[in-house]
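Example 9 (inverse folding). The structure is encoded as follows.
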């Protein structure tokens, strides 16, 4: 069967915990798993990580794992009786306090939020079910008009799409979770509620190259600095949950397309997430709209699509993965996909390695190579080739299992761990053995190989070799 290019990410949870279920998910097509640190204990995450690595060893293929930090989720406080009623067009007061709120008074345990609010700002409550508009700014309080009413219960979330809130993307809980996730050996850290590139730099200073950083784009303020955020991060996620709350619905598809294009141009993997096959939490098959949603992300060139509740708590996790795999393959079998897929993304002023990667894709197109083999220590060479979206796919050969796992998130890349090479003859021999083992080429087929000479030095990709299998 032809290798699938767009990758599948599955969120771990009770539905995917049993070892036999985990093995079936990998067999069905999961390339990378998400550990959601908004839920579950540290023991849960440690157990899941151990299960993933055991299943990976049994499958004989590198599987990526990323820890998704909860981030600074802003919430209202508690209320007398557990809830209040918000009525259309009434005026309510917002106050920074940890004390209990009451009818007409919403207390927020986030003084920085109340301090930042100005007249005209919009607040969305409980995932957008209710909405307030600030109408008056006081010294310690603000007054707001209820635009959409409802019942507001304790600890419901608050979104402020009109204002950049001066809150770090890393809470004290996140810092503790981050250190724990790194000790578990995750391959990426997903950073929630990124607002500007400094959030990514702050996380990277703590991680110190022990894992990559995935910047989750879920706030309008992040879209205003998307190029700088993508440049700072190792990968990005179109996190459509909160993004869909903070943006008008009609703007979310436009934002998704912009984020994917920006990540593609920068050569950074991009994941599309949230509500992809949501109905499969209960149903055995997705809706037609959900199938179209997954297909759209693939047509746009996303590196990966992600399952959330479908695989974490859903009734049919394996079926959800299998159906997502079928949708991706159907798109990738469509000639219109290849005709419309943006390619030649490398800017002309980039490095020799970028030029080599672009040239390898052109060579593969012209002479019909069955695959492109990229020797890579850090993964950058394989990622550069993947940015060009070669129709023949990429094999990343690396001496490090950590690099192979990171490449599990990258479009079109199948990675293998192999000893480092020391000369051209050995380079050719190992590439020949790899493509035969993976079944992507046979006698008479041609394969393009890229590597760096002298061997064993990272970041020195400067050579292309065309191999015809004898």
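The amino acid assigned to each position is listed next.
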């Amino acid at each position: 069967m032809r290798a699938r290019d767009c990758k599948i990410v599955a969120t771990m949870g009770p539905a995917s915990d049993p070892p036999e279920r985990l093995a079936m998910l990998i067999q069905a097509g999961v390339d990378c798993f998400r550990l959601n640190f908004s839920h579950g204990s540290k023991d849960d995450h440690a157990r899941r990580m151990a299960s993933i690595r055991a299943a990976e060893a049994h499958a004989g293929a590198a599987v990526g794992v990323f820890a998704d930090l909860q981030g600074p989720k802003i919430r209202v406080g508690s209320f007398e009786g557990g809830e209040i009623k918000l009525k259309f067009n009434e005026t309510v007061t917002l106050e920074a306090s940890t004390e209990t709120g009451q009818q007409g008074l919403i207390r927020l345990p986030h003084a920085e939020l109340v301090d930042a609010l100005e007249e005209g700002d919009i607040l969305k409550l409980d995932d957008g079910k209710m909405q307030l508009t600030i109408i008056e700014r006081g010294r310690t309080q603000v007054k707001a008009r209820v635009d959409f009413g409802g019942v507001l219960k304790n600890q419901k979330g608050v979104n402020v799409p009109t204002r950049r809130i001066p809150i770090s993307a890393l809470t004290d809980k996140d810092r503790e979770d981050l250190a724990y996730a790194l000790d578990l050996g995750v391959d990426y850290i997903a950073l929630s509620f990124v607002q500007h590139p400094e959030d990514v730099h702050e996380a990277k200073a703590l991680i110190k190259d022990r894992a990559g950083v995935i910047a989750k784009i879920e706030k309008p303020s992040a879209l205003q600095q998307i190029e700088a955020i993508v440049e700072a991060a190792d990968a990005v996620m179109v996190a459509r949950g909160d993004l869909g709350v903070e943006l008008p619905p009609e703007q979310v598809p436009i934002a998704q397309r912009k984020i994917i294009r920006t990540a593609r141009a920068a050569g950074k993997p991009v994941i599309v997430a949230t509500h992809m096959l949501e109905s499969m939490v209960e149903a055995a098959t997705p809706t037609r709209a959900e199938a179209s949603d997954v297909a759209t992300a693939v047509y746009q060139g996303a590196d990966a699509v992600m399952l959330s509740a479908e695989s974490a708590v859903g009734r049919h996790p394996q079926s959800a993965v299998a159906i997502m795999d079928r949708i991706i393959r159907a798109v990738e079998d469509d000639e219109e996909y290849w005709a419309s897929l943006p390619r030649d993304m490398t800017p002309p002023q980039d490095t020799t390695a970028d030029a080599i990667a672009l040239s390898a894709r052109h060579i593969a197109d012209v002479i019909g190579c069955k695959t492109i083999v990229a020797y890579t220590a850090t993964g950058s060479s394989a990622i550069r080739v993947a940015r060009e979206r070669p129709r023949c796919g990429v094999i990343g050969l690396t001496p490090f299992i950590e690099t192979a796992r990171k490449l599990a998130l990258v479009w079109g890349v199948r990675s293998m761990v192999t000893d480092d090479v020391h000369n051209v003859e050995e380079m050719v021999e190992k590439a020949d053995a790899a493509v035969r083992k993976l079944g992507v080429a046979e006698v008479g087929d041609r394969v393009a190989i890229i590597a760096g000479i002298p061997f064993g030095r990272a970041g020195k990709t400067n050579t292309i070799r065309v191999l015809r299998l004898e």
